[in-house]
Write a structure and sequence with these properties.
The chain contains four helices and no strands. With 128 residues, it is mainly α. Helix 1 runs antiparallel to helix 3 and helix 3 runs antiparallel to helix 4. The protein is elongated.
Length: 128
């Protein structure tokens, strides 16, 4: 079970990176492939609006997929950490305070990664 979850998380992270970066590179490549005069001469205001809308949609999808995958990974990680800590407390009730402290530190680190993903998604939408 653990192998499958870890493999799934790695695969989803790679998928998010590819989906986030490929559409942006495609628009840059298509703009560079044509001469500057051709691009300016062929682009009407409607075409520019369509390309801007497509870029906005790509950013929104990238941010949404990033948040969904990282949120899912964070929830699974927190669930695993919590289940293991409860299991450990059940086995050694006298070590409850040490286990609880380690649990809180682990949950803070997991939540920090999720918050970083939120910041990256916001940067994708508003800065790129």
């Amino acid at each position: 079970m653990k192998k499958h979850v870890k493999s799934l998380m790695i695969l989803l992270a790679i998928l998010v990176l590819v989906l986030s970066l490929c559409p942006l590179q495609r628009t840059e490549i298509s703009a560079q492939a044509l001469p500057a005069r051709t691009v300016l001469a062929e682009e009407s205001p409607a075409a520019q609006a369509n390309s801007e809308d497509a870029l906005r949609q790509t950013k929104a999808w990238s941010a949404g997929i990033t948040l969904a995958v990282v949120g899912l990974a964070g929830a699974l990680a927190m669930g695993m950490v919590l289940s293991k800590s409860v299991e450990s407390i059940a086995k050694q009730p006298e070590a409850e305070s040490g286990i609880r402290g380690s649990l809180m530190i682990g949950l803070v680190f997991i939540e920090t990664v999720v918050i970083y993903a939120l910041v990256v998604a916001i940067l994708i939408v508003f800065v790129l």
